[in-house]
Structures are given as C-alpha cells and as structure tokens.
Prior knowledge:
Blueprint: H1 17-33, H2 39-53, H3 62-76, H4 85-105
Helix pairs in contact: 1-2, 1-4, 2-3, 3-4
Amino acid sequence: MAPGRRDDANAPSDAEGLDARLRALHDHLAATAELPVETDASRWLGEAEAVAADVADGDAPRSAVETRIRQVRELLAHVEDTGNEDADDHVEAARGLAAAIAAEVGAEP
Length: 109
C-alpha cells in the first residue's frame, strides 16, 4: 500500500456509530480538496463534499441524512478517475462509507 493510502482498518467501526461514519465521509471528501485532481473530478468532489458537510455534524434528521447520502452517491458516481492516487483512495473510501451509511439509514437506490 502506498504511503497515505487508507484501508478498512482506518474506517470507523460499527461501535462508533453513524455520526462517526458521517464525519469520516466528509473528511475523505474534504481531503481530496487538498490534492491536485482533474478538473471534472474536482467539481463533482467539491459538490459531494458540500452535501456531506450538511450532515457531518450528526445533528441532521434521519430523512435529511437519507437524502444527502443519496446525493453524495450520485455525485461520486460521476468520478471515474481523479488523476491522483491518494485522491482515488479517498474517493473509494468515501464510496464505501456512503454505501454503508445508505444501507444503515435505508437510502439504498
């Protein structure tokens, strides 16, 4: 694994709860903003980060989490390659977290 790459060992556990996963999702998306990525990917990632930020503090109603997670997943579906290996790792981690959150809150497509 390349330096800076994340793996499942760094993902929040079930015991840490939904709030931790929401924060981690936002953190992964925010991390891509600090990296050089392709312009198209940057647009989608920036929008996904903004949407994830709406629920990252854990205070949003479950219905808002459902809506925002669906939106994040739709936005991330547009990102094929960022042009940066570290950013790609963050995107994959974000996709995994978004899928897990969606399953937890009933926001499956």
